[in-house]
Amino acid sequence: MEVFRKFSDSFWSPNVWLPPNVTWADIAPGSRPDVQHANYKDLIWPLPLAGVIMLIRYSVERFWVSPVGVSLGIKSTRPKKAANIPALESAYSKSSRLDHKKILSLAKHIDMTERQIERWWRLRRAQDKPSTLTKFCENTWRCIYYTYSFIFGIIVLWDKPWFWDVKNCWYGYPHQSVSGDIWWYYMISMAFYWSLTVTQFFDVKRKDFWQMFVHHMVTLLLMSLSWICNLHRVGSLVLVIHDCADIFLEAAKLTKYANYQKICDIIFAIFTVVWIVTRLGFYPRIIYR
To answer: What pTM value is reported for the model?
Structure first.
């Protein structure tokens, strides 16, 4: 416990996170009557909000996005099921990878040829793959959220001086009040990433599963730290910049699943331009001020 306490004291040292001659007590809620500092206790709110977002997602996907996908001709069916062969099912559950050595070993124990085993294995793998409609629904939901979040962010930040001049992010720091709209923008954004962290284990398993899991956790960590350190002005700008490009990325994917290849190519070209402008143009100007 002593080691943990020393580590905690070193990690949360004001010399690391705050400007000179400023302590955590100086930016605690209620420390100044003229400033509404961010309250670290509010970071608990995104957790129940994440549950609300998951419920909204389920309703939107099931009662709106899925019917739209079916009307566009997107297939919801899966390939033919593989026959129930316990020995092969047991081997598959241990590892879905198949090599010649494994084929020979299985052929010795069951009454099947090597070709039959390979065919069963292909069917079994295809059986685990999600339908195109499932992937369409997931990408459409993310596209809807990023569109909402970007529009809401623009509305929230439109009358904020730091939206038009990044230098205002630092005037008076760290004694900067958190307005109600910024509070909601932050809490809803964090709730969305919490929801992604949970639903990722039930969504389509992609090759970058763990990379995206780490991405979501790092995003939540950075947002939490920026909130604790009263860096919500910079954080709000980073959020709106990142949401902008993600809209077009998800839109390109869902049009791909809907077999609108030309529209997909156009949207992806727009995404490339927006990504370069926002991530390589605007983003460095905010971070390196």
So the answer is: 0.84
